[in-house]
Amino acid sequence: xMSAMTSLLLVLATIVNGLYxxxxxxxxxxxxxxxxxxxxxxxxxxxxxxxxxxxxxxxLVLFLGVVALPAAAFFTGLGEHGEVAGPAILGALxxxxxxxxxxxxxxxxxxxxxxxxxxxxxxxARAAFESRWNTLHQVRTAFALVACVLLxxxx
Length: 155
Prior knowledge:
Layout: H1 4-36, H2 40-53, H3 57-76, H4 85-116, H5 122-154
Helix pairs in contact: 1-3, 1-5, 2-5, 3-4, 4-5
């Protein structure tokens, strides 16, 4: 049986992962398809503004929490987890880490390149950005959703 602290950390990890996965899914199924219909100039301007606003305090709490909270729940509960909960929490943690690696190695450099292209050829900037960013975003969204499901299973 898990301690109260481990249970609390697991509940918080599940909530934060759910919020993060929902944010990622919203971008995947609503925001990016909506932006796809914009002109190159409108698309690049909108994505530049998103990329300026998204890494705000609330997002950073979620972004860091999807790794920190499952790690805390896993390591605080060592020896307490059942046959399902322990591997599920560890799997969620690994999904969070992989998703973050995709973001840091893939999406952020694309965001930075798009920001640096402001004032230049929006058509070329979009061509270099949109397809690659969307593919990477699909991958990290899948990892976020799997992490959320694994944490729900662990509960």
